[in-house]
Amino acid sequence: MSKRIIIALDFETAHQAQKLLQQLDPTLCRVKIGKELFTTAGPALVSSVISDGFDVFLDLKFHDIPNTVSRAVKVAADLGVWMLNIHASGGFTMMEQARLALEGLGTERPMLIGVTILTSLVAEDLLQIGINRSPEDQVSKLALLCKDAGLDGVVCSAAETRTLRGFLPQDFCLVTPGIRRPEDSADDQKRVVGPVEAIQNGSNYLVVGRPITRADKPNDALNEFNSAIAGVS
After folding, report:
1. How far apart are CA 178 and CA 208, in angstroms?
2. Are 47 and 79 contacting, i.e. CB atoms less than 8 angstroms apart?
3. How far apart are the C-alpha atoms of 177 and 68, rounded to whole Å?
4. Is 3 tagged catalytic?
5. What confidence category does residue 175 fall into, taking pLDDT thresholds of 50, 70 and 90?
6. In terms of Cα–Cα distance, which of 33, 37, 36, 77 is closest to 58?
7. Which of 44, 98, 125, 141 has its CA 20 to 30 A from that of 135?
């Protein structure tokens, strides 16, 4: 599988994002545009980044009533993004209607994946919001719900991917944030895993932010990540 690294463009302005993108090779990575950057720069930046040759994962984590989410994912798909996501906790009907909204696009449709449990959350955090399960158990429950709703995969911590690979189809995509090398700061991520271990556990794509975006030479850092996982399965 090529281009397994997805670089998180977690910036406040389009200028900052574009400055980084000028230093990256779009044949070696994909990029993720999340809420912060999308809020300040909007669809125009998404279209610009796609025009520059990058595959875009639009990370807006839609979570609303089914009709609203289905309309939102259709609009996002019309931008030409490669992947987008919705919150699995929005329920089966919401996810199914989102998937159905994309079916008319055929092979041109983006991948649609579900967000299970944010990598910033641990068991104590789940208890505070009334979920009396471990993160692993809750991720497994939501991943099955995503599969049943016809989604292409889920976002999950690499700590859970080995378990998910045990009962999910091999073509079900696992996208893993919270990727850090031993020398990298964990920052606000709590459930973090290294890139090689993540691939060995079954992750298809690795979302990497600050270890690349804040590096003195971002493309060199990207090459280091790609070299580390080359040939790993």
Report:
1. 7
2. yes
3. 26
4. no
5. very high
6. 33
7. 98
Number of domains composing the chain: 1
206 beta partners: 5, 176
Residues 7, 116: Cα–Cα separation, whole Å: 20
List 3, 19, 61, 217, catalytic entry: 61
Q: What is the dihedral sign for C-alpha 88, 194, 34, 30?
A: negative
- Domain holding 210: CATH number? 3.20.20.70
pLDDT in tens, 94-142: 999 999 999 989 888 999 999 999 878 889 999 999 999 999 999 999 9
- Give residue 230's region: left, alpha or beta (phi > 0; psi -120 to 50): beta
Residue among 186, 124, 128 nearest 157 (CA): 186
Q: Are 204 and 175 in contact (CB under 8 A)?
A: yes
Phi, psi of 200 (to 5 degrees): -65, -35
Q: Write the pLDDT tens digit of every residue in 20-42.
A: 999 999 999 999 999 999 999 99
Q: Whose structure tokens read 């200028």?
A: 15
Domain limits for position 133: 5-229
Distance CA 89, CA 185 (A): 29
Task: Identify the residue whose tokens are 């009396």.
Answer: 132
